[in-house]
Write a structure and sequence with these properties.
The complex is a heterodimer of chains A (454) and B (431). Chain A has 17 helices and no strands. Chain A is mostly helical. The longest helix of chain A has 34 residues. The radius of gyration of chain A is 23 Å and the shape is globular. Classes of the chains: A mainly alpha (454), B mainly alpha (431).
């Protein structure tokens, strides 16, 4: 028996019944795509096509198309990579960690958040692949296939290789987790459909029969996958942070990186979830499922993770001074006051200061403010990676090698390409897949909807 | 709610701190004191302080080991006390319902905080030169042959606004401020709990949520800084940005273990009858999960320092691993705090049965004490340290003193937050 305390906010408003849930969520899958959807999808696909020009140019000419130089040998590529991987983390946090903590509010946002995870990881994966110059060979080397022939070994000491393993494992588990969650909902759509749609959703639902035994298996698989995904989500950004922290570069080599990167990843991921969900709930009229209460809770996660990130920034700054290591001290002073001061202060403002506005209940329950701040956080987290990567590199040990990084049109274009890819995939998902997990929302309907609470 | 009538739990129950319980704790305390006494006598009479004398002009005295022990236990048990308050606040901030019958158990650990604060400050004044290298004035005197440029560079962190090498105002002020605010928050939580018991209604729950958020903000900053102050500054040259969170993780696992043990103890005495294996399971999951989290931080810190191999950082681990005294304890630390809880608490059943948790949580308390031993002794005692009668005795003395204070505090108030708006939810907690 479930009992819900009167101090809890309802998770589903509007007195919805089981049938309402099915109807409200399936209708956009079943209906004709709206004009708005077409416009949105075409815009995304257009950005994708435009960015593809830069991608083709980069593949044709080589990565000399990018603004890298011999001092700043890593810049936009890896910034974008870390940014996208980070965004992916929120989906797993919502679906796996919140499942382990039995947070019922996750049920209406987990589906879209997991989809976002998968698409974001796909976008992230583009950068290391493109960076290989000849990806058709690189993919084969990094797997590492030649290993099995005994002639060539990849560098197992390199965190970049650990990244390949970590991200591919994470991607596989996330994909399976997301898909298994979709199966009962596909079956629901199958059962309501006729003709071709019935065949397609029937195939997608793997013959789901909704028997008690099937549900039991579903629940145990979900728990096992959540248990697997939780250490994986930590491992991914931990290893991403190792890409930098195992080096001896001042500003990169610091022990706080692993947990701080994980917190930052969740922070940026929640911002992206909010950006997407605020639009989705409006366009698909899902305000009764993704309520202000959900938005408020996500904003609280943003305050917490933003503050953790803030404490990490301050800790790094303080320890740089405390260490007495001159290079370390210079790296941080240079970040805040050197030629990239604007990037540093954008990061500080966007990531540390602006999320504190969510302490005001008025702001964290305002849709407009939340939407704007979610964009601000996304911008801030991009700058964070840019600051860490470029400002640490651009002052070489030899002052004669000091340099600046200027992005070329190809840098910008490839980044645009991933935006196009991300939004094209997300819009396709939003149209053809149920954006809210109907089955799981139904499971909390009785205990947590407005009808029962009031 | 329509289900009130179904349960006949005694919501007015109060822990009876019987003379028999007191006597058993006192027995442990006396045994600890005897062991401590033996350790002191052995250290005074035997010992190898003659050879230490030639090492660096600094003769080793037996009481330095006593001071180091005081410091280990001060830091360790302060952690358990503040984690009790922290975990209590987390329940409100996260709107947790399952843990409602355990709230007073968590909060009771805060009773140790005022004493912990006094002990910490007293020990600092008694033993500063023997614990903290940076307290020596000659380090900051440019004309002294032992002048240390690096420590001079960070001197302001301890001495500001006074002259370096004089009186560490800033350091002491932080210590007083942290304990002051922690006690203040603890008293506030107790007060709101009392009012809730007397007056009922949901307003106290909302009030507690706000105060919990304020506390968590203060704790987030103060826990890291106190780790730098009380532990990291012992190895004055060394630094690690992760250290604050690492100490927090060690504290957190110790605190969770202590909360779990006290819960099982109370259940064994017939209290907390609404707490069933589901609640115990959740506590077990926290102990399991955060043991892994502690290991994650241990490993992250170790791997990054090992991999980059920068001398001023790697010295910390080299000093420990290559030492005859401490080398083995690195593996004891990992074995007790990771492998054991990881393997034993892996299955669902072991987290639901008190007997496994009693074993694992007791070992974890010892294990994390070893963790603090490894953080504190190498920098204070060097090769004169180790685990002997003095260590075991002092640990038992502190442990039983904490038990007396915590249980004494627990006995003063109701054991169950009877008017908590989520109590009903916790009755129906099934996992």
């Amino acid at each position: 028996m479930q009992v819900t305390s009167s101090v809890r906010q309802p998770l589903v408003t509007g007195g919805k019944t089981y049938h309402d849930v099915t109807h409200d969520i399936s209708r956009q899958v079943e209906g004709k795509p709206s004009l708005l959807w077409f416009l949105a999808f075409l815009t995304a696909a257009g950005v994708l096509a435009l960015g593809a020009i830069a991608l083709v140019a980069t593949l044709w000419e080589g990565i000399g198309m990018w603004g890298l130089n011999k001092t700043v040998g890593w810049a936009w590529d890896i910034t974008n990579f870390v940014w996208w991987v980070g965004i992916g983390h929120a989906g797993t946090l919502i679906s796996a960690v919140l499942l382990l903590f039995r947070q019922k509010w996750r049920t209406s946002i987990n589906r879209a958040a997991e989809a976002m995870t998968i698409f974001a990881v796909i976008c992230a994966a583009q950068f290391p692949i493109i960076h290989m110059g000849r990806p058709w060979l690189g993919a084969y080397w990094a797997l590492p296939l030649p290993n099995t022939f005994g002639s060539l070994w990849v560098n197992f000491n390199s965190p970049l290789l650990w990244d390949v393993f970590a991200i591919s494992t994470y991607f596989s588990v996330s994909l399976v987790f997301w898909y298994i969650g979709l199966i009962p909902d596909f079956a629901t759509i199958r059962d309501r459909a006729t003709g071709l749609r019935k065949t397609i959703y029937g195939a997608l639902s793997f013959g789901w029969d909704g028997a008690a035994k099937t549900w039991m298996r579903y629940e145990s698989v979900s728990l096992i996958l959540a248990g697997l995904a939780t250490p994986l989500v930590l491992s991914v950004h931990t290893i991403v942070s190792f890409d930098f922290a195992t080096s001896v570069i001042p500003g990169w080599h610091t022990t706080i990186f692993p947990p701080y990167f994980v917190a930052g990843a969740i922070f940026s991921g929640f911002a992206m979830v909010l950006t997407l969900m605020i639009i989705t709930r409006k366009v698909f009229k899902l305000e009764d499922y993704i309520t202000i209460g959900h938005i408020e809770l996500m904003n609280i996660v943003i305050i917490i993770t933003g503050s953790i990130v803030g404490i990490a920034y301050i800790t790094e700054f303080f320890i740089a001074w405390y260490s007495g290591v001159e290079a370390e001290q210079y790296a941080f002073i240079n970040r805040a006051t050197g030629p990239y001061w604007w990037a540093y202060w954008s990061m500080m403002t966007c990531n540390v200061i602006s999320p504190q506005l969510f302490w005001f209940k008025k702001i964290r329950t305002s849709i407009v403010a939340t939407f704007l701040l979610s964009l601000v956080v996304n911008i801030g987290m991009w700058f964070e990676r840019f600051v860490i990567i470029v400002t640490s590199l651009h002052r070489d040990y030899l002052p004669s090698s000091w340099a600046m990084f200027y992005p070329t049109w190809a840098d910008v274009g490839v980044y645009l390409f991933t935006f196009g890819l991300f939004f094209s995939l997300f819009f396709l998902f939003a149209k053809f897949f149920p954006v809210i997990n109907m089955a799981e929302v139904k499971s909390v309907l009785k205990s947590s909807s407005e009808k029962v609470v009031k | 709610m329509a289900h009130h009538g179904e349960h006949h739990y005694n919501l007015e129950q109060r822990f009876d701190f019987t003379a028999a319980t007191k006597k058993s704790i006192m027995t442990v305390l006396v045994i600890g004191a005897i062991l401590l006494g033996i350790g002191i006598v052995l250290a005074m009479t035997g010992g190898h302080h003659e050879e230490a004398g030639e090492a660096g002009g600094h003769a080793f005295h037996w009481y330095e080991r006593l001071y180091a022990n005081l410091w280990i236990n001060n830091v360790f048990f302060t952690g358990i006390a503040i984690v009790g308050v922290f975990f209590f606040a987390i329940q409100f901030a996260a709107q947790a319902g399952w843990s409602t019958p355990l709230l007073r158990v968590m909060l009771s650990f805060g009773n140790w905080l005022p004493i912990a604060g006094l002990l910490m400050i007293a020990t600092f004044f008694l033993a500063n030169h023997d614990l903290f290298h940076w307290t020596h004035a000659y380090l900051f005197d440019q004309n002294d042959p032992q002048y240390d440029k690096i420590i001079d560079g960070k001197g302001a962190f301890f001495y500001w606004p006074m002259e370096k090498g004089t009186f560490p105002v800033f350091y002491i002020a932080r210590m007083v401020l942290f304990f002051g605010f922690w006690v203040l928050f603890f008293n506030k939580f107790k007060k709101i709990s009392d009012q809730e018991d007397q007056l009922g209604g949901t307003s106290h729950w909302f009030k507690m949520r706000s105060w919990s958020a304020y506390f968590l903000v203060f704790f987030a900053v103060s826990s890291s800084i106190s780790a730098w102050d009380w532990v990291m500054s012992i190895d004055t040259h060394w630094f690690s940005t992760l250290f604050g969170w690492y100490v927090f993780a060690s504290w957190f696992v110790s605190g969770l273990s202590a909360i779990t043990l006290l819960t099982i103890f109370l259940k064994g005495r017939g209290y907390l009858e609404m707490v069933n294996e589901n609640h115990v399971h959740d506590l077990g999951k926290f102990v399991f999960g955060f043991s892994i989290f502690w290991t994650y931080l241990w490993f992250s810190q170790f791997l990054l320092i090992y991999y980059a191999n920068i001398p001023e950082e790697s010295v910390y681990f080299i000093e420990r691993l290559s030492s005859d005294v401490y080398g083995g304890f690195i593996f004891v630390n990992l074995g007790l705090n990771f492998f054991l809880p990881f393997l034993v608490l892996m299955t669902r059943d072991s987290k639901r049965h008190g007997v496994f948790l009693k074993l694992v949580c007791t070992i974890l308390l010892v294990g994390h004490w070893v963790d603090f031993f490894l953080m504190i002794q190498p920098g204070t005692l060097g090769h004169n340290g180790g685990i002997g009668f003095m260590e075991v005795g002092m640990f038992l003395v502190y442990g039983s003193a904490v038990a007396l204070v915590v249980l004494g505090g627990l006995a003063k108030k109701n054991l169950i937050a009877k008017n908590h708006p989520m109590l009903e939810e916790s009755y129906h907690h099934h996992i």
